[in-house]
Design goal:
This protein has about 240 residues and is an alpha/beta fold. The strands form two sheets. It has a six-stranded mixed β-sheet, with helices on both faces. The chain has a four-stranded antiparallel β-sheet with strand order 2-1-4-5, covered by helices on one side. Helix 3 packs parallel to helix 5.
């Protein structure tokens, strides 16, 4: 059995009277892709922000390869092995694609993919000398992925990377992400597109109002009455 990479135990996050996350627990092992789904406002991005150090949880514990993590800034967590992509990429627009990835590489400790390997992997080698701000939306998402991979993460949170992509681009990104698992890396994929997730993840966790309401195979989730009610807006007969 593969080794556990990341474990969350009872993670809760409150913003005043708003309970954004309530006792969320799960783990992910090396070589696994885990889907994190739910309606807007269910707590998915809040959870990423907690694990990646942008927010401090009100309660609960986070373990990376069995070691409990205390309060750490995002850049320290990224160096430790937890990194992410963003729903809306924000590259250094006036810098070239190559320079954007070079900046990320300058913060890496240890081994990892070379600059040229990253450019080839995200299919941006042809645009390496182009200003990042001139890329289209799909290319900027791939650049965001490349910057995240530059730090050689042990676990990578992928936040709606498929949003706005056409079917051909979605299929390419799914293959790209699956290939990352072969080296023992773990993925946590936040996504609304069920067809995309079906090509990528082994199991899913469904959140609603900050609580976990389902944990299991994607196809089982789609048959679950509670999931259909909160995520698809329907209730089974």
């Amino acid at each position: 059995m593969a080794d556990e990479i990341l474990r969350l135990e009872g993670i809760s996050k409150h913003f005043g009277g708003l309970h954004a996350l309530q006792e969320v627990s799960f783990s992910v092992v090396g070589g696994e892709a885990l889907g994190l789904v739910g309606p807007n406002g269910s707590g998915k991005t809040t959870l990423i922000n907690v694990v990646c150090g942008l927010y401090t949880p009100n309660s609960g514990s986070i373990y990376l390869e069995g070691t409990k993590l205390g309060k750490m800034n995002p850049h320290r967590l990224a160096r430790a092995g937890i990194n992410r992509t963003f729903q809306v990429p924000q590259p250094f627009g006036s810098l070239t694609v190559r320079e954007n990835i070079e900046i990320a590489l300058s913060h890496r400790s240890g081994e990892g993919m070379s600059l040229d390997d990253i450019l080839d992997f995200v299919n941006l080698g042809k645009w390496a000398g182009q200003e990042a701000g001139s890329l289209n939306a799909a290319q900027q998402k791939r650049l965001d992925l490349g910057r995240a991979l530059a730090l050689n993460p042990k676990v990578l949170f992928v936040d709606e990377l498929g949003a706005g992509l056409n079917p051909v681009e979605l299929a390419e990104v799914a293959v790209m992400l699956r290939s990352l698992l072969s080296g023992g890396r773990a993925l946590v994929v936040v996504e609304h597109l069920m067809g995309f997730l079906d090509k990528l993840v082994d199991r899913v966790i469904v959140l609603n109002a900050g609580r976990e309401i389902f944990h299991g195979a994607l196809r089982s989730a789609l048959d679950d009455d509670e999931v259909k009610r909160v995520f698809l807006g329907t209730v089974g007969a």
